[in-house]
Specification:
By secondary structure, the chain is an all-alpha fold. The protein contains ten helices and no strands. Helix 2 packs antiparallel against helix 3. The longest helix is centred in the C-terminal third of the chain and has 27 residues. The chain starts with a helix and ends with a helix.
């Protein structure tokens, strides 16, 4: 085994799920700091951070349920790859909390990460900016963080034993993610 890999923090899909959730939370919290900034130029960084947070949460869920995730920034595509029972639970809980259809919200914000990162290149070419749906984005990103914090252990227990996800049975997701 390579010396670098033997000392790696991320040794399996479970470790990577924890890492992605840490990134999701950090990005979401960073966006909240920018909301209070006196700068008038914070909307694109806020959208980028919130959409990255959502993408990391979905990839974390995919690791917990399937043991892998695709190289995609499209949050609707990532959501569609989740197991049917998990999608059904997410759809129901989001609807109960917000009275908004999660799949419609994901459709609206599906490409916000790429769109916000390259906004100015498109603007420079056409002098027309892209519209973003930040109300959906913030609500959906926050929902996925809370959902995984509340349900991550049971999700992992349900899927972990039958998939390629491997980790110590003595380490639970909730012990690593503070609520």
């Amino acid at each position: 085994m390579d010396l670098f890999m033997s000392n790696a923090r991320i040794k399996n899909a479970f470790d990577e799920a924890i890492f992605l959730m840490d990134q999701s939370i950090a990005s979401f919290e960073s966006a909240k700091v920018l909301v209070d900034s006196p700068s008038e130029y914070t909307s694109m960084p806020i959208i980028t951070l919130q959409s990255f947070s959502l993408e990391c949460s979905l990839k974390s869920l995919l690791l917990l349920t399937c043991g892998k995730y695709p190289s995609s920034h499209d949050v609707l595509d990532l959501f569609e790859r989740l197991p049917e029972d998990e999608k059904k639970a997410l759809l129901g809980e989001f609807l109960d909390l917000t009275e908004v259809d999660l799949k419609n919200a994901l459709t609206e914000i599906r490409r916000d990460f790429i769109g916000s990162r390259y906004y100015f290149e498109d603007f420079r070419k056409s002098y027309v900016g892209r519209a973003f749906s930040t109300g959906y984005l913030e609500a959906v990103a926050n929902f996925f963080i809370d959902y995984i914090k509340d349900n991550g252990d049971s999700i992992y227990q349900q899927y972990g034993s039958g998939s390629s996800v491997t980790c110590s049975p003595h380490v639970m997701l909730s012990t690593k993610l503070e609520r």
